[in-house]
Amino acid sequence: MAADADIADAGAVPEAIVLKTPLHARHVALGARMVPFAGYDMPVQYPTGILTEHNWTREKAGLFDVSHMGQCFLVGPDHETTARALEALIPADIVNLAPGKQRYSQLLNEEGGMLDDLMVTRSIDPDEDGALYLVVNAACKTDDYAHIEARLPANVKLIKAEHRGLIALQGPAAQTALAAIAPEAAEMGFMTSRTMKVAGIKANVSRSGYTGEDGYEISADAKRIGEIWDTLLLDAPVKPIGLGARDSLRLEAGLCLYGHDIDTTTSPVEAALTWSIQKRRREEGGFPGAARVQRELAEGVSRVRVGLLPEGRAPAREGTEIATPEGEIVGKVTSGGFGPTLNGPCAMGYVAKAHSAPGTRLDLIVRGKPLPAVVAAMPFVPNGYKR
Length: 387
Hints:
This protein is of the alpha+beta class.
């Protein structure tokens, strides 16, 4: 799933404009600590705490409310028309996206920087051949919709799916838990999508997520998403998980957080997201910022996103400067914290290309003092995706 804005940057939102997801009352009843986040009142943790929630998701199954995310459809007369309209805005190959498959990509500006990252799904239903389902980040969705709508051809429309709720079930027990109320889910592969009955309720289900674990995202009518949530929580291995553990899980998985690890100044190549640009698009271009992306692919980049493992137990937070052992500043941390599964601190950041090879020793300047660290491959914790 696409990344969200950071919890720490949720900021104080005037009470009058804080929105609530369809599951808000359930979070309160479960004793969640609620915080303003991307314009919504969201659960940051439940009474057991972030560490317990993180470990539970890694070992069993965590249930997340992600109804604040933006859900919409692009609808045109046929798949190729709609796909090419979207390809004019993102660098992924959507024309050749097979029915029932989904793809991760980025909404780019003319300079090749990222306005947002998103998930794109093509329906498996032949009757929905001209429709694409998009999920974008909560903090960006209003701007994303306006940006997309302003650039669509007359025969392709954007339809906001504000009537839908969205939940994510993540962890090694996710398949068993969901298959108990939606048997078709067990047959799905990673990054596929189907429409099915979940606890008797029509839903769109994808096998994907933002934790590095196997899991699903379930989109259904907002008036009924609570019934699916309640039914899943009847299964002992399933527990509700808040934004705090969502962030620590995605950090261990080496997944980008929009507005932090990626933004309007970073290109997909710098962000080590080249894998999300398929060969045809790399060669043909035809998307915003293509000249920059193609140049960086051919000539390399001056900086690149890397994983960092600090020595000791002290985490390096966002904004921490990265230096060589000789004291030359060569980059900055964009995400950092303590990894419960890793049992140690981990971070991501951008460094000069010459210092980006795994095993390179660097210093993180924490409270004015150099903290030794080493460049490391990501993910920090092996993923559990269903392949």
